[in-house]
Design a protein that fits this description.
Elements (H helix, E strand, L loop, with lengths): L3 E10 L6 E13 L21 E10 L2 E2 L4 H14 L1 H15 L3 H8 L1
Antiparallel strand pairs: 1-2, 2-3, 3-4
Length: 113
């Protein structure tokens, strides 16, 4: 399965204090490509609601350009923030890379299923 990377800047709280710091982070991840809705015009047993694309195996690679190991609490907080607020951006970045490799979307879907 293809691993993708994503880099961004996060406003990250450094504990219980209200101060926040901006950190540059880079992560790697895989994508479980979803499926479209099918069977709308047939018998109910042929209906499939489809499935969304999902980010899987999210790993923190670096914080401000420095690799791990990372404090477990900080790493978990950063990954949670990414999962909650950057999923669409990560999926978009992965999709752009996939399209650059194989411009035919049918090919992308067939290879990853």
């Amino acid at each position: 399965m293809t691993r993708f990377t994503y880099a961004t800047t996060l406003a990250y709280s450094t504990g219980g204090v209200p101060e926040t710091a901006e950190v540059e982070i880079e992560v790697s991840f895989t994508v479980a490509w979803g499926s479209p809705e099918t069977g709308n015009y047939g018998p109910p047993e042929d209906y499939d609601p489809g499935a969304p694309d999902e980010i899987e195996d999210l790993k923190l690679l670096s914080v401000d350009g420095v690799g791990g190991p990372f404090d477990q609490h900080d790493e978990a907080a950063i990954l949670q923030t990414l999962a909650q607020n950057h999923t669409e951006a990560m999926l978009s970045a992965a999709n752009d890379i996939e399209e650059a490799w194989a411009p035919d979307e049918d090919y992308r879907r067939e290879v990853n299923w």
